[in-house]
Each structure stands twice: as C-alpha cells, then as structure tokens.
Design goal:
The structure is a homodimer of 422-residue chains. Chain A has two domains: 239 residues, Type I PLP-dependent aspartate aminotransferase-like (Major domain) (Aspartate Aminotransferase, domain 2); 102 residues, Aspartate Aminotransferase, domain 1 (Alpha-Beta Complex), CATH 3.90.1150.10. Helix content of chain A is 45%, strand content 13%. The first copy, chain A, has 15 helices and twelve strands. In chain A, helix 5 links the parallel strand 2 and strand 3. The longest helix of chain A is centred in the C-terminal third of the chain and has 27 residues. Chains A and B meet through helix 1, helix 4, helix 5 and helix 11 of A and helix 1, helix 4, helix 5 and helix 11 of B.
Chain lengths: 422, 422
C-alpha cells in the first residue's frame, strides 16, 4: 500500500542479520548499539540460533520496560512471551485455557463483529463461541449489560471462562474509554473470567477525543483486589502501529496472575515449537525500544513515524466523511485501528437476488463491487453482525489519492446498486 | 557451537532486509540478483509484507525446482507449503490428518526412538501413538516386519492412518537404504497409510556407504501405481544441513496425492495464522537455490559448506570411535544427522539408586553426568527405547577439540559410574 518501512528498524535488522555491517560507516551508531545488544543476547551472537522458547531474554526485558512505562508497579520479563505474531499468542493461550476437561465445554466470549481469528481458533479447539454485540448506535462501544446478558445465556449450555476484547477494535475501529475498561475488568473479576486483551492497534488511535488505555495499566490502577486476582493476557505485534512489519511475524503476550502449574503447561506447549522467529523478536525489540530524543536516529525516526500515523489519521477522517455522504451508507467514526466498517442498506430486491445465488446479501454486494470496480472488501458476515444488518470492512491503508478514488468508486457503485435493486 | 553462518545466505538476507544495500559495492552481484528476485515477489517489494499463506510464489517455485532436480517427473509449486520451521509443517499436517471423526481414534505410527515433537503433537491432538521399534542391533535400521507387527496390534484399539519416518534419523543417526524406503512405501500403499517423511537432515550424511534418497524420488521411480496413490508429505528446514539457521524458522513441506477437499481445509487452516515468517522463507530460498559453479560467490560458498560438513563427518567418526572404546557403552555408526545415541550399561545398583530417587535410570545417569562434569545430554527415555535398555542423546556440534574433551570427560565419568555402582 505504499507505506515505507521505518528506516531505523530495518537498519538494526540488517546489522543483526549480517554483523560485518557493524564496521560500516553507513549505519548510525544508535542502530549499531541496539544490534550489538540484541546479538549479545542471542546464542552464538546470531539471529540464526534458536532462542529460549519464551524468547530472547533482553528483548523480553525491553518489552517489560515498555509496558512498565508510566505504571506504578513494574512488569517482569518472566510474564512476557515473545510470539510468532499476535495470532500465535492468542491461539496458544486459548489452547491452554480451553483444555482441561470438566463436564461442559468451555465458552469463549468474543465481540460481534470480531476478527475471524477468534472464531476460527474457537472452532479448531471445539470450544463454544459466546457472542456479545458491540453497540453500533453508540460508536461500537462495549456495553457491560450486554456482557451480562451474553454470559447469563451462555451458562445454560457451556462454562464461560474467557472474555476476549479487541481494543482498538478490528473491524470496528472503536477505542474504549477508561471507564469502559474499568467496567469490563470488574465484570471479569465478578464472573471469574480470564481476560484476553488484543491490543495490537494500540499505536493506531486517530480521534482527538480518544486515548489508548491498556487493560494492564487500568487493572493495576484499580487496586490489589483486581490486580492480584484478575487473570489477563494482552497482546502486541510488529504488524500494526506505524511499523507495519507483518512479514517478520513478531509479537508478544504478557500473562499475569496465571496459576504456576498452568504457566508450566504453557511453557511446555511453547517449547514443542522450539522458538518464535528470532528476526521477528528483534523487530519487536525496536517497536518497544525505538530511538529516543538525543539519539542520532531520533529525528528521522520521529519524522517517519509521524508521517505514517498522520496519514492514517487523515485517511480515517476522509473515509468516515465520504461514506457518510452516501445515501444508504452509515459509518461510525474511525477512532482507531486501520479499517472502516460501514453499515450498508441493501434493498429487498437485492436480498432476494442474493438468496437466488445462495449468497449472504453482503457477500452478494461485495462480489458485485469486486466485479464492477475491481475493489475487494470483506463482507460483514465474515466478522459477524446483528441479524438483518449488513456491513463491509475496508482498510484505509491505500495512499490518500488512491483512497479518494476508491471511495468515489464505492460511492458510485452503491448509488447505482440502490437504483438497480430499488 | 562455533559454527559460522554461510556468508552468501546472510548477504542475501541483509540485502532483502535493507534494500538500500543493493547499491553497496561490498555485496556480490549474485547475492543482489537473488535478493532482487525475492523482493520482486514480495508485496510492496518488502520482507515486511504478509505473503500468501502458502508462502511466496517464487520461493515455492525454487523449492519445486530443487525437488525436481534429477527426477523424471516434475514437482509443482502448488504442492509446496512454506512453513515456520519443519515442526510447524509436521504439526499442521498431523492436525489435518487426525481430525475428521470416525468411530475409533486415529493411530499415528512413529519410530522408537523418536524426536519428541511427534509424541507431543500426537498427545496434543488426542491421537494414539503407535510405536514401531528401530533395530538397534542392525544400525537402527527400519524393518518392515516390525511395521507390520505394530500396525496389526494397533488395529485392535485405533485406526492407524499415518506413518512417520525420520530419515536420516533423529536421535539415532541412521540413513535408510533405497531398498528400505521401497519396502516402506509398499507397506504404506498396502495399508493405505499417509506417509510423513521428515527429511530435515538430508544434507547431513557422513558414512561413505550411505546416500540420502528422498521418499518422493523413490516413490516416483516405483511407478504410477505408487506415485499416483500413496499420500506423502515430506519436510525440510533451514535449521539443519550446513546452514544451521534455526532462528529464522524457515521450512517447507511438499504434499502429494492429497484429496482436493482436504487440501482446501489445509489451506484454510494455514490462513488462520496468516503466513510463515517471510525472512525464514527467504532463508529457505537460499537453502534450495545456493550459488552454482560460475557464480561469483560459488567458491566461498563451497568452501564454507565443505568445511561445515567435513567437520561434522570428522566429529561423527570421532564420537563413534571414542564411545566404542568405553566398556559398557556401545554406539552405532553415526551415518547422518547431528547426534550420537549410544547405549549405556547401567548397573543394577544404579538402577536401584535411581528408583530411590523416583527417576528413570538413564535420567539418573544424565543428572549425575551433569552434576559431575557440567555436560548436559538427554536421557534416552525422552525419545523412547526398548524396555530395559538405556541410552542418551548427545550432539556432535561442538568444535573438534572441545568435543574431544567432552568425550573424554564422559568416558571418565562412565568408568567411574560403573565402579561406584558395581
């Protein structure tokens, strides 16, 4: 999509990959310093060695320091697990939480709309998917009464043990308020639910009224009754933010208040796959330990970072504004993440035509859009949506000018679609 | 263990990581050519983009060409799946093969001794482990009569569907003869078993009397009755051979004769985790597509490769010879792979002492060795062994002089151990 890699990250990675470059004058000293530190922590000073299954120690220390930043209570590297992207962490911890038997199957609460990794892993693990609906009328906010409804109904047919939160939301782009997070934590404490906080879009917040609050930080600020009891796993990744280094498959999870025996099982499970990619671990290190003021690379790094995030903010606003000009499309503010998830009106005749093709109506809509414009978006039914409502997910990643063209084409298509099936 | 990375591989990786280096005169042209080719096949010409879930297309083409080399029938890139190391491929294909229900649980045949990934994944998947014993008296050869015994006995309590082969063997180091592979393929055909051929040590063959034969090649040479019917998945990795790039988590599997519907499920399962690390995919490309005669880097590459493999061959012989000089240790020839798996005599008194400590006798032995010498080896009970026999696994990776010291220390320890528990 034209987004360029952050130079500093790639410089450190290149130095780690081919340490002969440590003698090259073309690389800045702060990049060399970080590369040397990472290599010293690797077996044989090489990215090619297996690391410990939990990840390279000094990188886990950097992650812990990053999480601790501004918090009253420290985070220890022992609770940090480096992963093969966030997906790997999420599926691994779900595997641990779902197993263990018991009479009824384990319920895992997920938002609707959700990111389909969750439904796929729940299905793989033969657990029960427990839906709670985000409030579209209220900017996709999470309402704790809806969590209560969902958990009560679920108790009839399964044992709800896990509550998954995606903040900022994918595909819905909402950013949760501090109050909302407190309510969710209190609810998890009441119901003894294990909290999974998918926070991979933590650097992607665009609305001036919104701020990212990590579940970990809020949990600690709520006092020892919560911070010593609520079990929480949170996730981050190299794939999002302003780095966008998806291909390196870097990520981490922090797990707190996990029972020591279960922690032992988790480490055992992780060790079967040996270790996460060490190059992805190195990339994760740069995400949590970027150049700081006074360092040689700081200025260029800041410029590149601001450029990526500034552009994303501009595109988020542009997308929201343009969609809301189209009759029959309503788009909530894109407070964060990288997607629009507009609601689309699909006329009755189009619903009939879709049924004749044995397609979900939004799938039918998206296929028509693809055929007529070449634009590929994902139907809301792939993420889940309230019965009778239709949506699609579109990324806001294309460059501004291209995005404008895309949005204009979607607009024209939609107006035309409404006419054709009026 | 002091083994240095292959320069060419790291050069290509550094160029792919930080493409500014493509203008640097310090990198050879053949490395730049490969890096450009890989980058052109990556989204946005970047290792940081997600690839297709099955892997970067041109890398799968290179893998296919590597497999086809010297074979009558071509291999298509569609059957190639790039993986996060071989472990990921093995556990993914086992997941697909074990699921699907049926009245009785799925049996998976594995060699004893085995590499513990297999027992761990079988246990995770709630399948049945069906042991077949390698013939220690015959250099750990695989005997088809033993396969027949194992499958017949297993049919009483499960549905044997999969036969796993490790060649060259881990931990046992044997290299299978062509005749043996033919027998195994015929057996799999008779019993309609899905063959898994773990061939990650294919470049690690040291005995002058042995040659590596891939299951795929032998299968094709056995004619269409076999090559069109026997289902086979084979695995390779960047972690072994002379490259030893474990940390990059690169690997591939080739799957042939898989039913199209099951292939669809496999692709779906893989897509949940998005893609294997693209840096590991690039490393895999260099393993299957190294410099050839006439290319600028060929001479240095060949020198480095021969040095690693020559040293391993020397250390294999040294280890075998030294162990066989020790009373109460017998070591089969290390025909391939990277380990010795000697049989050790443990006196009755030591067995009693182990029982008093609630330890397996070989675990007791290994703990004593660790405590007295600082040398860490893995007890045979971690890999499986015939009742009443004891072994340990030791790598032959340390540099020659260090290895000599290690072996001498093990020898002294063992003689002392026999005396203490006589």
């Amino acid at each position: 999509m034209g987004q360029q890699p952050i130079t500093f990250l790639r410089q450190v990675m290149a130095l780690c990959t081919y340490p002969n470059l440590l003698d090259s004058p073309s690389f800045p000293e702060d990049a060399k310093k970080r590369a040397r530190r990472i290599l010293q922590a690797c077996g044989g000073n090489s990215l090619g060695s297996y690391s410990a299954s939990q990840g390279v120690n000094c990188i886990r220390e950097d992650v812990a320091a990053y999480i601790t930043g501004g918090m009253r209570r420290a985070c220890g590297p022992d609770n940090i697990y480096l992963t093969t992207g966030a997906s790997d962490g999420i599926s691994t911890i779900l595997k641990i939480l779902v197993s263990g038997g018991g009479k009824s199957r384990t319920g895992v609460m997920i938002p609707i709309p959700q990111y389909p990794l969750y439904s796929a892993v729940i299905s793989e693990l033969d657990a029960i998917q427990v839906n709670y609906y985000l409030d579209e009328e209220n900017c996709w906010a999470l309402n704790v009464n809806e969590l209560r409804r969902a958990v009560q109904e679920a108790k009839d047919h399964c044992d709800p043990k896990v509550l998954c939160i995606i903040n900022p939301g994918n595909p819905t782009g909402q950013v949760q308020s501090r109050k909302c997070i407190e309510d969710v934590i209190h609810f998890a404490w009441e119901e003894k639910l294990f909290l999974l906080a998918d926070e991979v879009y933590q650097d992607n917040v665009y609305s001036p009224d919104c701020r990212f609050h990590s579940f970990k930080k809020v949990l600690y600020e709520m006092g020892p009754e919560y911070s010593s009891n609520v079990e929480l796993a949170s996730f981050h990744s190299t794939s999002k933010g302003y780095m966008g280094e998806c291909g390196y498959r870097g990520g981490y999870m922090e797990v707190i208040n996990l029972h020591p025996e279960i922690k032992g099982q988790l480490v055992k499970l992780l060790s079967v796959r040996l270790c996460p990619p060490v190059s992805g671990q190195a990339a994760m290190d740069i995400v949590v330990n970027p150049p700081v003021a006074g360092e040689e690379s700081f200025e260029q790094f800041s410029r590149e970072k601001e450029s990526v995030l500034g552009n994303l903010a501009k595109k988020a606003k542009l997308t929201e504004d343009l969609f809301n000009q189209v009759p029959g499309i309503h788009c909530n503010p894109l407070q964060g993440a990288m997607y629009a998830f507009p609601r689309i009106f699909i006329p009755a005749k189009a619903v009939e035509a879709a049924q004749a093709h044995q397609m979900a109506p939004d799938m039918f809509y998206c296929m028509k859009l693809l055929e007529e414009t070449g634009i590929c978006v994902v139907p809301g039914s792939g993420f889940g949506q309230r019965e009778g409502t239709y949506h699609f997910r579109m990324t806001i990643l294309p460059p501004v000018e291209k995005l404008k063209t895309v949005l204009q084409k979607v607009k024209d298509f939609h107006i035309n679609f409404l006419e054709n099936y009026a």
